[in-house]
Design goal:
Number of domains: 2
Number of helices: 10
CATH topology of the largest domain: D-Maltodextrin-Binding Protein, domain 2
Oligomer: single chain
Structural class: alpha/beta
Distance between the termini: 64 Å
Length: about 270
């Protein structure tokens, strides 16, 4: 009887370890803009694949790509294309940065809901952020200084804003730099005279989204390119994905995955 119990426990232990060996972990890190897409997709994916555990974090586009190069993440989310220096650094470590476009986004300027301005020109945005325009009075608002909120330079959102709005001008030195879309929303919502910019998926009632040149940000204007600060959102892998990585990317690109993109207020590519 004692031998039987010993054998039984041994069999159970082997079965347990065998079951654990089939459990897979998937690590995703990068853009805070893509974070809502990745988090919601991971939640649904794990329900459909209970043998897979997906860990999602948002430390910034550049940090996510670096993590992929360093092999500390399986998928890097990014709100911008990989830079030449990143591609070069990856090749030196045997990594091939392969982009998968998973959604579209419009970066939108936001102000406090009480601000009596609804529209702004692209030139005015540029001059606010480079410091030429310092008071709301200069663009039809109250006679109060503009509190400029921007993203840190490692942010993919900042880099797209710099390219499409600032045209490589420097952000005014007194701008408040925040680390994420969420922090930008929170900061602007608490300051009646602030202006910031966020991914369209982070818009809520705590801030007012401004039109640019009379155009409203929407799925249609982002998809047809008429919104002036539109961009694709990416998930990067090391070469052509395989196994659970390929399965997750395929899920995000499926009709169910693209429905999730729309649910979190971004723009599906299909």
């Amino acid at each position: 009887m004692k031998n039987f119990i010993t054998i039984l426990f041994s069999v159970l232990f082997v079965c347990l370890m065998t079951g654990l060996s089939y459990a897979e972990n998937l690590r995703i890190d990068g853009s805070t803009t893509v974070l809502p897409v990745a988090q919601k997709a991971a939640e649904v994916f794990m329900k459909k694949n209970p043998d897979v555990k997906v860990f999602v974090s948002g430390s910034g586009s550049g940090t996510g790509i670096k993590a992929l190069i360093d092999r500390t993440t399986d998928i890097a989310t990014s709100s911008r294309e990989a830079k030449d220096k990143e591609i070069s650094a990856a090749k030196k470590k045997g990594i091939t940065l392969t982009a998968h476009t998973v959604a579209l986004d419009g970066i939108v300027p936001v102000v406090h809901p009480s601000m009596k301005i609804d529209n702004i020109s692209l030139e005015q945005l540029r001059d606010i952020y480079n410091g030429k325009i310092k008071s709301w009075k200069e663009i039809g608002g109250p006679d109060r200084p503009i509190a400029v909120v921007s993203r840190d330079t490692s942010s993919g959102t900042y880099e797209v804003w710099e390219e499409k709005v600032l045209h490589k001008d420097r952000v005014r030195p007194d701008a408040l730099l925040v680390a994420s879309n969420g922090q930008a929303v929170q900061t602007v919502s608490q300051n009646r005279y602030a202006i910031g910019y966020i991914g369209i998926g982070y818009t809520d009632k705590s801030v007012k989204v401004l039109k640019i040149n009379g155009k409203s940000a929407s799925a249609a204007t982002v998809r047809d390119g008429s919104w002036p600060v539109a961009r694709p959102l990416f998930m990067y892998t090391n070469g052509k994905p395989a196994g659970v990585i390929a399965k997750f990317i395929g899920f995000v690109l499926s009709s169910e995955g693209q429905k999730i993109v729309n649910e979190v207020k971004y723009v599906s590519i299909k």
